[in-house]
Amino acid sequence: MTQPTDIRGEHLRAALSLAASGVPVLPLRAGKVPFGNCRRCADNACGGRPNMKTPGPCTCPAPCHGWAAATTDPRVCNSPTWDRAWSAAAAVAYHPGGAGLTVVDLDNPHAIAWASRTLPSTQTVATTRGEHWIYRGTMRSVNGVRDGVDIKSTMAYARWLGFGTGTMTALPDAVRALAVSRPSPTRPAPQAITVPAPAWGEECRHRTPAYLERGIAMAEQRITEATSGVHSTVYRTFLAVLSTHGRCGCLTDSHIARLFTAAQAKGESPRHCTDAWTNARTRLGL
């Protein structure tokens, strides 16, 4: 469903204004997620874009590759391919790292209270559920550094919600330290699942150690090697594992823990892992 002309124009005007100030922008579709890759770029078959400042071999004119598609070029923003995306967009996003910024995404009142006690004040933007605290400086993006706290900087995007209030200050060591050591009490163990036994009652061929081990190892590798679109890669990988092994009782807690561990090593929070796993099970009717 396309947006009314005034909404499309509002998104484009905001994007062009940000781009003119040196902030790389991209459109978001409903659900606050980037537009998926086109068919040519699906699963990074094109080679992908390893980072925003030095694009890889892909020259796709569409807003592909998530955060890596963010641009400051007004010609790209106004191109026919991007125009179609703006017409269907639900919001504008930006690449904080590409603008030399770091966003501390505080997702609930407890996280905001923690930041108020712990972090130096800076520019603050209200979000649907909490606040974005924006600092000058870049660092590695990491999700789930604390309960309700994500860090968005390099290789990430954040929704544009206005300029907010306060004066932006330098990225403090207290934020950088969060990416080094994430407290374990806020990280719940991966959820175990119960899957139905084979309807025909025979021993499942997937119980062959080599077959199952190879499948889990390949899934771990796919997640580990993701250079962009980590959210979608994790979901698609979970979906593939469950479509093969989810109906026969093969998967154990240790197998699931390995997949969750690989995803969390790429910056996914326990909540995102659980949501991706649940959504994959729901789609397959498990």
Question: Can you put this structure into words, describing what you see?
Answer:
This protein is an alpha+beta fold and 286 residues long. It contains 9 helices and 10 strands. The chain has helices at 5-20, 74-77, 80-88, 109-118, 173-180, 209-224, 230-245, 253-265, 270-284, and strands at 25-29, 33-34, 91-94, 101-106, 123-126, 131-136, 142-146, 149-152, 158-159, 169-170. The strands form 2 sheets. Strands 4, 5, 6, 7, 8 and 10 form a 6-stranded mixed β-sheet that branches. Strands 2-1-3-9 form a 4-stranded antiparallel β-sheet. The longest helix has 16 residues, at 5-20. It is globular and about 55 Å long.
Show the helix and strand layout.
Layout: H1 5-20, E1 25-29, E2 33-34, H2 74-77, H3 80-88, E3 91-94, E4 101-106, H4 109-118, E5 123-126, E6 131-136, E7 142-146, E8 149-152, E9 158-159, E10 169-170, H5 173-180, H6 209-224, H7 230-245, H8 253-265, H9 270-284
Parallel strand pairs: 6-10
Antiparallel strand pairs: 1-2, 1-3, 3-9, 4-6, 4-8, 5-6, 7-8
Helix pairs in contact: 6-7, 6-8, 7-9
